[in-house]
Amino acid sequence: MTFFLSIINTETKMKKICVFLLILIVSDVRGQDVEVIRYQKLLEILENGQGSDIEVYNFWATWCRPCVKEIPYFEEINNRYENVDVILISFDDVEKLESRVKPFIRNKKLKSRVYLIDETDYNAFIDKVDSQWSGAIPATIIIDRRNGKRFFYEKEFEREELMELIKQLNP
Amino acid sequence: MKSINLLLIAIISFAMLSLTGRSAEPDVGQKASDFNLKNVDGKMISLSDFKGAPAYVVIFTCNSCPYAKDWEDRIIDLHAKYASRGIPVLAINPNDPSISGDDSFEKMVEISKKQNYTFPYLFDQQQTAARAYGATRTPHAYVLDKNMVIRYIGAIDNNHKNAKAADKKYVEEAVEAILQNKEVKTKSTKAIGCTIKWTKS
After folding, report:
1. ipTM score here?
2. Does pLDDT of B51 surpass 70?
3. In terms of DSSP bridges, do strands A113-117 and B150-154 run parallel, antiparallel, or are they unpaired?
4. Which of A122, A137, A140, A161 to mutate to test binding with chain B, by most B CBs within 10 Å of its CB?
5. pLDDT in tens, B53-94
6. Which residues of chain A are within 8 Å of residue B154 when distances are taken between CB atoms?
7. 23-42 in A: which are within 8 Å (CB) of B?
8. Rounded distance, CA B190 to CA B60, Å?
């Protein structure tokens, strides 16, 4: 009896492992899922954070050339530092989620968390995100959650510049 | 001692000016600077060419930005509505084509033909107009009164995707207020746009 039970057990274990592996493979091939959010959710995320020491919020879109150029640098700091989290907020139209945003994430193998903001009345929230922001992208907010310090940039980053900035916050 | 203090203040403020590079940008209530820029038809255009205009609409935009494309029908509509009433609606492309190839003068000519632009579409090759107005993105709209005083800065309306769904037509409301000698209610707004492609110094 115990023998049969253990066989069944191993079988279910095997099944579980197989399912787990399958999920891993599929998620790797398909890329991460993208949560579509409204601006209230964005403000909540900015307020409450993701539980990291340093959080880097980058506002971008797949059609924005300077944004696309700097994304690998953000991806690099996200992957390099344990306590740095990069959150990419896409301003692509929600209609382009499947046709452009997801393929982009897949092709670039992005590990940074991606949200897509679905809003049209921009004036209603740009100031709430940051009063220094005119609305141009790329734009970046860096928050050091350990001391609450917040830095805003409405510009395209060069790699060295971003690395230096993170090094200063994270000596 | 006093002069040293003054000198220090001058140096510090100069340093801050060059750091931010934005202190010179005009705000609502300040006079806008004139410009003299080449239109897609090859002619030079200035605000002063429209002497006696009751208001002016100046929109920094470009060929390449999806938001500029989203809003271009609104610029056509504004021109259709106001040009006949003596209010110029002028579009200006400030992008450096060496950074954004699709924003060359040739492409401006091409797109204005293809999209049937009725409004003047000017090339700000030296980026002096964009700097003088403090424009940061495309599209970025300015409404001036008859004295060329800036009365509104910001988005054209509040829905880039769909003109019909826009329930706040900021530029139109500003123009109408100026025509009726009233205070412009919404003086500035923000919108998502593409950064202006500044020439790298």
Report:
1. 0.73
2. yes
3. unpaired
4. A122
5. 999 999 999 999 999 999 999 999 999 999 999 999 999 999
6. 123
7. none
8. 14
Task: Give the pLDDT band of residue B165 (cuts 50, 70, 90).
Answer: very high
Rounded to a whole number of angstroms, the distance from the CA of A83 to the nearest CA of chain B is: 30
SS3 label, residue B142: strand
Q: Find out whether B99 and B197 touch, Cβ atoms under 8 Å.
A: yes
CB atoms within 10 A of CB B157: 27
Domain boundaries, chain A: 1-30, 33-169
Spell out which residues of chain B touch residue A155, defining contact as CB-CB under 8 Å.
195
Count the Cβ atoms, other than its own, within 10 Å of residue B141: 27
**CB proximity A152 to B under 8 Å:** no
How far is the C-alpha of B84 from the C-alpha of A56, rounded, in Å? 49
What does the angle CA A54 – CA A56 – CA A59 come to, to the nearest 5 degrees?
Answer: 165
Question: Between chains, do B195 and A120 touch, taking CB under 8 Å as contact?
Answer: no
Å between B137 CA and nearest CA of chain A: 5
Asked if A123 and B193 come within 8 Å (Cβ–Cβ), the reply is: no
Interchain CB distance below 8 Å, B66 and A123: no
**CATH for B26-195?**
3.40.30.10
Spatial strand order of the sheet with B55-60 comes to: B44-45, B37-39, B121-123, B89-93, B55-60, B140-145, B150-154
Tokens of A24: 């891993």
Architecture of domain A33-169: 3-Layer(aba) Sandwich (3.40)
Residue A67 scores a pLDDT above 60? yes
Measured CA to CA, the distance from residue B122 to residue B187 in angstroms comes to: 25
Specify the pLDDT at position B150. 98
A135 touches chain B (CB under 8 A): yes
Q: Indicate yes or no: CB of A136 within 8 angstroms of CB of B193.
A: yes
The closest CB to that of A122, out of B66, B190, B194, belongs to B190
